[in-house]
């Protein structure tokens, strides 16, 4: 059978056009840098964050996100507890605290720290899609890595390749909770539904949300 797509970019663009556009008001980001090596496509169900662009830039950094999430609006925390088990050096943590204070994300009073902005995680679903023309091993490897960064991890292939993968790899994909999507020129079908992951850490969820909003705002500003 003749290949449906000549280039991976064609597969990505077709998949977006016939599957993701307009779906639950998703925010769509191509080549999103939320891990080492970008994820081909990330979709996030519509979310509304209470942060300014400068604040989102700050919260896209792991240490800053971790420290911010340890603070509460009405529950004080001392600095030694705030930086405990963050996984960064004391100087790095103190620098992050200064940035959070400067950008009004946290406040300090009488040697205690508080969150300075109301924030609760919106009910969103973060999906990651690795699109490949034929390379199952690479797509599977990347989709497995993505499970730590998204709620739902999918692989996307041309429909004829996806159907072959379904026959030979169904058991391992279901075991790993990785979804499989087959794409033709006119439509995309979910052949295996991804399982929602429990591995997504709160600070990574926050980074995903603020990065998607930050990137989206930059794109909107560039189009003006």
Describe the structure.
With 224 residues, the chain is an alpha+beta fold. The protein contains 8 helices and 9 strands. It has helices at residues 8-20, 53-59, 62-70, 79-82, 90-102, 136-146, 159-176, 202-223, and strands at 27-32, 39-44, 77-78, 106-109, 112-115, 126-131, 152-158, 179-183, 188-192. The strands form 2 sheets. A 6-stranded mixed β-sheet has the order 1-2-6-7-8-9, sandwiched between helices. The longest helix has 22 residues, at 202-223. The radius of gyration is 20 Å and the shape is elongated. The termini are far apart.
Structural features:
elongated; 3-stranded antiparallel sheet; alpha+beta; 6-stranded mixed sheet; 43% helix; 224 residues; 9 strands; single chain; 8 helices
Concise synopsis of the structure shown:
With 224 residues, the protein is α+β, with helices and mostly antiparallel strands. It is 43% helix and 20% strand. The protein contains eight helices and nine strands.
